[in-house]
Amino acid sequence: MKLRDGTATRIKLLEAARDVIRMKGYTATTVDDICSAAGVTKGSFFHHFASKEQLGIAAIENFGEMAAEIFGSAPYTALPDPLDRLLGYVDFRAAMLEGDIASYTCLMGTSVQEVYATHPDIRAACDQGMSAHVAELERDIEAAKQLYAPDAPWTARSVGYFIQSVLQGAFIFAKAKQGPETALESLDHLKRYLTTLFKKP
Q1: What long-range pairs does 155-159 form, CB within 8 A, spacing at least 24?
Q2: Which of 59, 103, 122, 157 minimizes the number of CB atoms within 10 Å of its CB?
Q3: Per-residue pLDDT tens for 104-129?
């Protein structure tokens, strides 16, 4: 029972850190904020994590695992054509841009923009997590390239990072504009651009 309770408390803290940091930013988020959102005591917090930074890194890793599950089971992954899967990924990301802004923006992007120069371990965790997601996309990009643009000078890896650059920029404008309209337009342009890279009959 204690083991299950301890696991449940850890999950609550990870989820609270994910949500509060996306809403307030890493620096403005306090241990008290996280404990309040999780409904746990400070003693429970420090039983599981030695510091806010340690929790921040664990939350980033947990966010990556959650994202892998969401995108790994998304409908577009069942499409037989890799280009259709790639374009379906963009559509899927666009469909996620609804509700509260903090609920659809990226914990990794939010964190690394703020602390890249002051918290190298958090920066490294964000880089690893975002790059792992790019690597997942890279497989479909490379397969589509082999089918429709085998002689193109660009690499699948560079296109994967370009897609994520557009997405992170879209999240920034969703925050700046306090709504998803500009972000959605950016993803529409991203989809148009991707179709120009491949010469699908």
Answers
A1: 159/194, 159/197
A2: 103
A3: 999 999 999 999 999 999 999 999 99
